[in-house]
Amino acid sequence: MPCDRGGGGRAGQGDTMRYLVRDRMLAFHEEAWIETEHREKVYRVDRKLFRPRSTFALVNTEGDQVATIVKKALTLHHTILVKEDGTTVARISKRAFTFFGDRFKVVLRDGRRLRVVGNFWDREFDIQDRGTTLAHVSRRWFSFRDAYAVDVMAEQDTLLLLVLAVCVDHTLQDLKGEKVTNL
Hints:
Elements: E1 9-10, E2 17-24, E3 30-36, E4 41-47, E5 54-60, E6 65-71, E7 78-84, E8 87-94, E9 104-108, E10 113-119, E11 124-129, E12 132-138, E13 147-152, H1 158-176
């Protein structure tokens, strides 16, 4: 899952694709659907209840697992690993305390670091690579809590950016104690 190394501003402004992440509650397991802006289902984020570790599978519409999200236990920082075919492709951690700088740190397999910046209280944030916005995540357009939009500007990185958005949102929900409504 490579990332665009473009210059400043937004990557491919004319090529923005909006995805919606919708949670489904009160099922035998927790799941969220990722849909296009035209309500076409693309991926399912699935977590079975009662597993000892917090592990989520990102499954495409054909039923193939395309990524795994593993929440590491017993870490100083809230850390999530993104794996593809058993190999870690990204590590997302939330710093426990920060007065300045980024609240989330994303390290990719190739050593590059992405920034997650914005208003985390209102769930309005961007995923950036060296000043270039690759994706914008927003709950602003939804009056209900169980959906949010992910505008992807770097189409070649869609899967990675969607997974990162889910991980950051999950971390924010987890820290607020809203474990029942979201992954």
